[in-house]
């Protein structure tokens, strides 16, 4: 069984880390409009989905 990440998985992981570093401010620096702006950025990456608890 191979527990290593594929190159595509590593690339995606790196992409997400860069995105977070560039777009996610610390909690104490998030204004009232943070969530709206954050969701715009995440949607632009097409990383949004819905999850409902059972």
UniProtKB/TrEMBL annotation:
Coiled-coil segments on the chain, per record: none
Gene3D superfamilies membership: Acyl-CoA dehydrogenase/oxidase, N-terminal domain
Organism: SAR86 cluster bacterium
Protein name: Acyl-CoA dehydrogenase
SUPFAM superfamilies in UniProt: Acyl-CoA dehydrogenase NM domain-like
Signal peptide: none
GO MF annotation list: flavin adenine dinucleotide binding; oxidoreductase activity, acting on the CH-CH group of donors
């Amino acid at each position: 069984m191979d527990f290593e990440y594929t190159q595509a998985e590593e690339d995606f992981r790196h992409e997400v880390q860069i995105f977070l570093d560039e777009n996610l401010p610390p909690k104490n620096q998030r204004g009232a409009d943070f969530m709206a702006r954050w969701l715009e950025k995440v949607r632009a990456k097409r990383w949004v989905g819905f999850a409902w608890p059972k």
